[in-house]
Design a protein that fits this description.
The structure is a homodimer of 685-residue chains. By secondary structure, chain A is an alpha+beta fold. Chain A is built from 27 helices and 20 strands. In chain A, strands 1, 2, 3, 4, 5, 9, 10 and 11 form an eight-stranded antiparallel β-sheet that branches. The first copy, chain A, has a seven-stranded antiparallel β-sheet with strand order 13-12-18-19-20-17-16. Chain A starts with a helix and ends with a helix.
Amino acid sequence: MRLSALALLLALPVLRADEGMWTFDNPPTRKIQAKYGWAPDRAWLNHVRLSAVRFPEGSGSFVSRDGLVLTNHHVGHHWTQSVSDAQHDYVKNGFMAASREQEIRVPGLVLLTLLEMENVTDRIDQAVPPGADEQAAARARSAALETLAKEQSAKTGLDCQPVSLYQGGQVWIYRYKKHTDVRLVMSPEYGVAQFGRDWDNFSWPRQDLDFSLFRVYEDGRPYVPAHHLAWSSRGIHYGDLTFTVGHPGHTSRLETLAQMEARRDVTNPIRVRSLERGRAALHAFAAKGEEQARLVSDQLMGIENSYKEVVGETDGLRDKVAMARVAMLEKELRAQVEVNPGLKTLAGQSWTRIEEALVQQKAIAGEAFLAGSFRGDLLHTALSLHHYAEEMVKPAEQRSQMYQGEQALAVLRGRLMGERPMDAERESVALQSLMASVLQELGADHPITQSLLRGKSPEAATKELLAASRIADPSVRRAMVEGDPRGILESADPALVLARRLSPRLEEVQKRQQALQSVITENLTRIAKARFAVYGTSTYPDATFTLRLSYGSIETYPLSGTLAQPFTTFAGMYDRAAAWGPEAEAGSWELPARWIERRDKLNLFTPYNFISSNDITGGNSGSPVVDKRGELVGLAFDGNIESNAGRFYFDARMNRCIALDARAIVEALDKVYDAKHLVAELTGK
Amino acid sequence: MRLSALALLLALPVLRADEGMWTFDNPPTRKIQAKYGWAPDRAWLNHVRLSAVRFPEGSGSFVSRDGLVLTNHHVGHHWTQSVSDAQHDYVKNGFMAASREQEIRVPGLVLLTLLEMENVTDRIDQAVPPGADEQAAARARSAALETLAKEQSAKTGLDCQPVSLYQGGQVWIYRYKKHTDVRLVMSPEYGVAQFGRDWDNFSWPRQDLDFSLFRVYEDGRPYVPAHHLAWSSRGIHYGDLTFTVGHPGHTSRLETLAQMEARRDVTNPIRVRSLERGRAALHAFAAKGEEQARLVSDQLMGIENSYKEVVGETDGLRDKVAMARVAMLEKELRAQVEVNPGLKTLAGQSWTRIEEALVQQKAIAGEAFLAGSFRGDLLHTALSLHHYAEEMVKPAEQRSQMYQGEQALAVLRGRLMGERPMDAERESVALQSLMASVLQELGADHPITQSLLRGKSPEAATKELLAASRIADPSVRRAMVEGDPRGILESADPALVLARRLSPRLEEVQKRQQALQSVITENLTRIAKARFAVYGTSTYPDATFTLRLSYGSIETYPLSGTLAQPFTTFAGMYDRAAAWGPEAEAGSWELPARWIERRDKLNLFTPYNFISSNDITGGNSGSPVVDKRGELVGLAFDGNIESNAGRFYFDARMNRCIALDARAIVEALDKVYDAKHLVAELTGK
């Protein structure tokens, strides 16, 4: 039926959403079966689990019997950079080992395979002495778990790690095989792996060849994994069932509605305003000339990306349908807690307690945010010097942890004296922007504002302070740090005078903020426990950077007045490159020379990137996308911008995983990189 | 500077926006010069004006010395259909005249060229007798203008039409040359002209070959226009200055802020809810089976498009930045009116008067909307029969205009008796949806709700009414219409009983609504007059489907977390076709066979569609896009979905004109349609 899809997407409630990051001991087989008429069995699950690997900051999988590992270019980026040098920029220019001898060992890179999982909840519970109070119980549990993990590591030779799921509702030991000899095999040029650069980050349609290949070695020979994913010869199609197997990093889906509303209405808007001010200041600075623009371009890039993220998240928190669902689930849980005496005692008050704490947090939100904003500028330096001096005048044993021991102190002193160049203009931009923030967020009458501005405009106060203070000069700081700390505490330098005045207030705000936060954390844990008591494993735990399974299908969503296309092709990449030309936005859509030369060799209509309804988040980067057969059909590398609130909820209407199609990898290896040996190894042909 | 564009687009105030639909007597040359360092002169303006033509519902231009006219496929659609028959579906399959002999005359199609414009404001003012009151003055003006136009038409042989600009601030006579022998030359297949069908309507990036070619004849020979647009051999590039020359149909940019807010908060949400209910009902109906789905597919399509439009418009009216600008401009005008005694007397109270009328309109908005919703169903038929009978029992001279004269009565009777098939199921869906609307918008206690539902559910009330009423049967209606009208007024048919009960109430609501609307209209005219007195021709008049010039440049906008690409290419079309496959959504992205066969002959990276910051609206479809040289570089065919509030304001950050690139037309004619003769004629080679 024509037009039904958009209507259904927009109008109907989200039934049977493909939601969840499920642990392998508890896959949602009934849900999958009900929706897709098929569900994985134990052998399938073991196969994909044992084929998966964990990178230090992402996911990957074994894709050949000779230990080839597939992950994202952006997961491998750091490691590819680490084996590059001035002559060989493998990130920018790519890398291709023409033979195994050319594969480059990557020092420090360790990959993990999850061999075994053991639920030790009962055993750890038994470690709690009878009659122990809450704190003692927690200590006993923690100690028992640590001991157990160490014992197991020693006994098994595996890397045994404690895992806390459902906010402590379950405790597990996950036993990993460690791979310490990992070598770089292939990495495409940055310009095609991150086509569209940071502009296209989060966007769809997308055209990124975001993969790289490593190989695990053991005893100097390619490692033969017990399991690896076969390369699909069939490909994946619109509507097909898809799974991702990977390591989602962190979610906060159990936050209360009140917490999300506080983010939406108070703390996120403060962050947005701060980013907007920072951006405006940097733009004004950059507009002064080319050199100025160059000086702040990295800062601007960072701000733009943070802005995109926080605005996306806030938009998500404003989505009425999604938030109504959050509210409904909370209401249901509260009703369940209310009728169960034990749970009512445990968590009945927790939502209210959190709300009360939030009321207080909101009242100091501006101040708390600003207290954390004194960073990287003259004032931060002044505050650091002041703290240093305050600690140093105390007897050594009374100093706080950070100031204990000669080694720690040496590092600290080095940082304080550091010869880092302070660019006066850049400094002035940062300081002025901070002062404007203080004025806008706290108002002219606030003590912090008065200390900082003394009734002047941000411009005037900045100018005066920068003109009068000497601590921007590294030699001045060196003399202070090497001299008597009392000199700092009594200095007439206006930046230090200011630090002396601000310091107690800032500390007080931070302490209050932390106290409120601990109330929230405690009550959130209670709610989580209640939730686990009610729903048990019929739901999935928040992400913990441990192995999870998500299911979904190749599925469109409403985008810009139409339906998002489920796939892109290489033709779409060349279309976008031609649309912009190589010069636009500092070459953001410029293709590497090899890709221009080889264009006519490619089958331009090879499926390139696709979207699916799999529920993923940061850490899932590099996750294999597998089909019903357990074969590799794609490589997850991003979520669409509509998923930016995915930390708080999954919205089946709009949230999509973006993946690189396996067919594109083979086509590129074959036609662009002349890597027939890798194609043969991957496809087994 | 990397990343600056998005930041500037989002953060900075809209300075020197490319806004306005300017008349040719008053081009904004200083604004264009200031922003682009170049501005058109009188010769340039005359040339493009005399090359432009007006279609009955759109725009076009002469593009060859032999009278070829270029317009959009969707502007030509109706006329192409009108010369098609069962054997020759030129809309679906396209049409190509291989020679001039094969060009098909299109009966009824009249094109206009604007030869001369005369400002007759003073002359018409003189027609007002001294001391005439407002109404008499208006009558005298209107009569004088009509007489003048007729005189001029007779004298010049041209089609002389009165044009009221700036809400009556200026009155003009526009003198058009009429072209009545217009022949179809070339029209591409629907599947490529409207690639993506209604899904992609308003969306960007876009891939539509939305053009067709006609030829004007005179005395049986191709007409040689005094001016035609030369085909650019250079093409257009990112950042280049662009102009559109065409006939924007209607804008309401002088509505007050209060009016826009009333639309945003009250009337548009009512429309949205109504569309949502209608859609849900149709989907439920369509879900019953294939035949049911087929029955309502056209209605669903209509609803989906209305929904897209009204939601887009409402989103636009919710845009804080854009609405702040509307508010600022209104505040500025009100301040100017306040300090000018004459204007204060004229319009000083008008904003308040409109607000007061809006308060009353908002109170009856639901009822007024529903009163206009009794359409196309059993109840509408009953109401029509009832009105007919009410009028017919009066003496002929007392009947309202519609019921005067035998001819009018015959048409009316025919309509009432009409043999139109009433599908019972479809009827039931419509009626039930109406009853649900009444219940939701007016509440259970409202007299209209009580008359309709009599305490029952919409389902039950619908079922009862349909079961008991006989008027769905054409023979029953025929007997009623041909019999004594008193029979209708006394009929016990429950639909007619209902009509008798509802009719007075509905009439009363409509009368009240009209009375309030006339207060608003009167005060809006006063504001417009004040505005013209203050700003004169330093601004542009609202659109009136007369020839206008807009300027702009090829410019990106923020889209889906990144920057919208300024161009697409044929490769992008094939990419999207491959992404969806020919089956998806009833073939929405299926390409005509010829386009699949000829793919490899095309230069796939020919610029295909582009976006520019030109300010256009409905009626501009088919407008030529010309460059500084006055050469044709493109063909405007749509606005992006962000322009859906363009009726109320122009937002330079987001509103974009979507155009077909002239290079794509030539490439398609040459490589796909083998039309080398047309390529030669267009390019003059």
